[in-house]
């Protein structure tokens, strides 16, 4: 990185110092400086990357509803493994049951849970062979709270759509997540992803954004 030979200050640092001077001169330090600090203090953290020996204490996934999940080596978005789901609810479910499938994903955490009490978003890379779809997210805590598919208002659908036969990053704004009774955000032990249509899906690199600690 370039630095001024006389001051030793880089352009980034100089910009921050300049902003500070402007803020002080304008008398709006309480408005702008916290905004700058918050943006610099957020970081993307891994929830699950499906790699071996990544800190996951036991199972990486669980078949919630006609998912037939398993780890595969291709296709992957990054690393050596991704999670495959063969959603078959439409073909095998009973009368009145939904189509598609739901897979539960556990965190790569030796404590069996992660603190998401200050998380602002959650993302997952999805390879969708079926078509272009929105994706439903459910959070569960270590006590199993989080609702189920018979309870409306306990999940969050993505605003973004997957793209057929290519990796697409789907992100949920967790500030819009519903107020689910008894959900303990500082002990999230799994997420559940539901795809509406029967078909083959792959998931990789589940991450969430939270303050840097």
Plain-language structure description:
The structure is a single chain. With 213 residues, the chain is α+β, with helices and mostly antiparallel strands. The protein is 15% helix and 33% strand. The chain folds into two domains: 11-41; 43-211, Sandwich (Jelly Rolls). It has helices at 11-26, 29-41, 89-92, and strands at 42-48, 61-65, 70-72, 82-87, 101-105, 121-128, 136-141, 156-157, 167-173, 188-195, 199-211.
CATH topology of the largest domain: Jelly Rolls
Q: What is the chain-wise order of helices and strands? A: HHEEEEHEEEEEEE
For the record, the count of structural domains works out to 2
Question: Describe the biggest sheet?
Answer: 6 strands, antiparallel
Radius of gyration: 21 Å
The helicity comes to: 10-25%
Describe the global form.
globular
Which residues sit in consecutive blocks of at least 5 with pLDDT less than 50? 1-39
Number of beta-strand segments? 11
Name some characteristics of this structure.
single chain; 213 residues; alpha+beta; Jelly Rolls; 2 domains; six-stranded antiparallel sheet; five-stranded antiparallel sheet; 3 helices; 15% helix; 33% strand
How is this fold's topology laid out?
Blueprint: H1 11-26, H2 29-41, E1 42-48, E2 61-65, E3 70-72, E4 82-87, H3 89-92, E5 101-105, E6 121-128, E7 136-141, E8 156-157, E9 167-173, E10 188-195, E11 199-211
Antiparallel strand pairs: 1-11, 2-5, 3-4, 4-11, 5-10, 6-9, 6-11, 7-8, 7-10
């Amino acid at each position: 990185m370039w630095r001024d030979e006389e001051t030793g200050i880089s352009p980034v640092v100089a910009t921050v110092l300049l902003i500070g001077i402007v803020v002080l001169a304008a008398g709006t330090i309480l408005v702008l400086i916290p905004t700058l600090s918050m943006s610099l203090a957020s970081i993307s953290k891994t929830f699950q990357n499906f790699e071996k020996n990544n800190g996951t204490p036991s199972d990486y996934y669980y078949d919630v509803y006609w998912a037939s999940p398993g780890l595969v080596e291709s296709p992957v978005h990054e690393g050596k493994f991704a999670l495959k789901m063969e959603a078959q609810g439409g073909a095998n479910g009973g009368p009145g049951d939904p189509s598609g499938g739901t897979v539960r994903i556990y965190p790569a955490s030796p404590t069996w849970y992660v603190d998401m009490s200050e998380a602002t978003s959650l993302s997952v890379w999805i390879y969708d062979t079926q078509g272009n779809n929105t994706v439903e997210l459910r959070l569960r805590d270590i006590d199993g709270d989080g609702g189920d598919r018979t309870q409306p208002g306990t999940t969050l659908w993505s605003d973004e759509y997957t793209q057929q036969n290519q990796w697409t990053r789907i992100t949920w704004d967790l500030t819009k997540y519903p107020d689910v009774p008894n959900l303990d955000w500082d002990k999230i032990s799994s997420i559940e992803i539901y795809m509406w249509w029967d078909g083959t899906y792959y998931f990789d690199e589940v991450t969430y954004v939270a303050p840097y600690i």
